[in-house]
Amino acid sequence: MNPAATIANSLWSAANLPSYFWFRRALREPEIAQQERLRTYLDQNRHTAFGLAHNFGSIRNYEEYAQRVPPMDYESLQPWIERIRRGEPNVLTSEPVTRLVPTSGSSGGRKLIPFTAGLQREFNTAISPWLLDLLRHSPGIVGGPAYWSITPVMSKPEEQESAIPIGFDSDTAYLGGVRQRLARAVMAVPDEFHAIQDLELFRYASLLCLLRQRELRLVSVWHPSFLTLLLNSLLGHWQDLLADIRSGGCKHADRLPPVVRNALKLPPLPRRADELRSVDPQKAETIWPRLQLISCWGDGAAEVAANSLKALFPNTWVQPKGLLATEACVTIPFAGRHPVAVLSHFFEFADEDGRIHRVHELELGKTYEVVVTTSGGLWRYRLKDCVQVTDFLGKTPSLRFLGRSGHVSDLFGEKLTDAFVAQALQETLAAAKAKPDFVLLAPDQDILGSRYTLYAEGWLPNHFAGMLDQALRQNPHYAYARDLGQLLPVRVFTISERSYEKFINQRMASGGCIGNLKPVILSRTGGWSNVFKGSYMQEK
Asked: Which of 40, 305, 363, 463 is at 20 to 30 A from 217, Cα to Cα?
């Protein structure tokens, strides 16, 4: 047990207690909690440019709010956000915007999301009950340090031109205040590592810090592949890492930014180096025998990657984060379910016919698209995330993330969505008893015609392409395009190595950020055979 980490974790837990009890109470009356959220937003922002344009001062109830403000996508809000970027105050929120946080959409374009002190409090309101619930399930978490994902900057200087700072250093930046200081006290990897712009150097330094922590108890990342890629670097650097742990140095210290060198003051740990010499670096779970929990995305397109992570850590609890995005926290893991974070933001849900429903109006088994209003200035913002109601906690629905509702591939009217493809693939993989490490479906075209190709790393049966093609035919538009000959049958491209790394590097080249790339299982663009190494499977 690590005494310093135990004290910091205990203080952090105590700070989270009020939010935990407020959330438990709100689960029983979500309609009241949501009404209070909306009234607060309207009262606080009536004199903003957006509030004046939509006459917030005269809005008396939800119905009038829904009538005055239409559901909006990022393109609708972008002109307002550009005003904020140029330094204009009081645009979307009365509170100052402290940062513009970049996130990438499924199509690859970068979005800048306004972040305020109020939005920070809303994230705290969601994260606090989740952490307390974790401790009830696994009290051993309190006894050691944690790793919260840190993303290297890796951005071009010209992209940072803004009157408002752009980006966050790490996950802990969402906490702020005392909670952030307590989180930093138990961090296995210093926040300053965000300044490392070389990806391989970032991974080496991160692994060096993590390997030193025998008592590591919690790992929090966004996409599971972030951790998988990090661990894939272990084998090639194993001996150098052990030598650095023994000496207390860092082989690449001279290449690190000064702020990182100052934070990286490591005493020699010869006993830990000797212990690691008896460990197989390809069996990650043996490196951290006290690891209690890995928190990551685990639904929709991230499910395959999460299953690969579970194979690396068969005795460690891998918990799906729920729907936690840069823009908002929609659900949190709590009491074995994923209830809506009803105290954090104001939520609406569009059904398949476009009708809007509030939290207390959702029905079991139905599918919806999330619409959210936040303290950061996202007004009736369409997250384009598709969810399904799986259960209720009190009167609050528990949701499962299905996929990106606005992410559609449509060559000949087949209208394949991320959510549908994820479901079809999950059913087909289960029927084939196959668990590949990576899958991505993408349109392709060659001299024979157009089709979809499944890019996969890991074993698949020879007849898998036919099985998947049949599953995709559950979409009548796809079946029609196939029957007309507009689309050829699905084929499989077997990736020989480094699938996640190649995929993420390609997405980063389009403006994405490695730490928080949203999971997709369907690409709308082709040409992936030029990105991945491998060959097309010959179906028998």
From this structure: 305
Do both 211 and 72 map to the same domain?
yes
Whether residue 41 contacts residue 344, with contact meaning beta carbons closer than 8 Å, is answered with no
Q: Which of 230, 164, 242, 161 is nearest to 196 (CA)?
A: 230
What are the tokens at 398? 């528990």
- Phi-psi group of 416: left, alpha or beta (phi > 0 → left; psi -120 to 50 → alpha; rest → beta): beta
More confident residue, 386 or 104: 386
**Following CA atoms 337, 342, 343, 344 in sequence, which dihedral angle do they give, to the nearest 10 degrees?**
90
The residues pairing with 446 across neighbouring beta strands, listed in sequence order, are 449
Q: Is residue 334 part of a domain?
A: no
Domain hosting 445: range is: 408-536
Residue finishing a domain among 275, 304, 320: 320
Degrees to nearest 5, angle at CA 307 with 406 and 436: 85
The strand pairing partners of 440, in sequence order, are 455
**DSSP state for residue 29 in the 8-state scheme:** -
Say whether both 287 and 172 belong to one domain. yes
**Structure letter (DSSP) for residue 387:** E
C-alpha to C-alpha distances, 108 to 51, 58, 105, 508, 511, nearest whole angstrom: 31, 39, 5, 8, 6
CATH of residue 417: 3.30.300
pLDDT in tens, 208-246: 999 999 999 999 888 787 888 789 889 899 999 999 999
363 CB-near residues (< 8 Å, 6+ apart) = 389
Whole-number average pLDDT of the chain: 86
pLDDT at 471: 94
Q: For 520, how many CA atoms within 13 A lie in the half-sphere containing its CB?
A: 27
Triad 169, 171, 172: Cα angle to 5°: 85
277 and 163 within one domain: yes
d(CA 326, CA 191): 18
Is there a single domain that holds both residue 170 and residue 48? yes
Amino acid letter for position 68: R
Residues 183 and 176: beta-carbon distance below 8 Å: no
C-alpha 4 chain-centroid distance: 29
What pTM value is reported for the model?
0.77
Domain boundary among 320, 339, 365: 320
- Angle (CA) 262-266-269 rounded to 5° is 175
- Phi, psi (rounded to 5 degrees) for 149: -55, 135
The mean pLDDT value for 170-190 works out to 60
Does residue 184 belong to any structural domain of this protein?
yes
Mean pLDDT, residues 383-397 taken together: 94
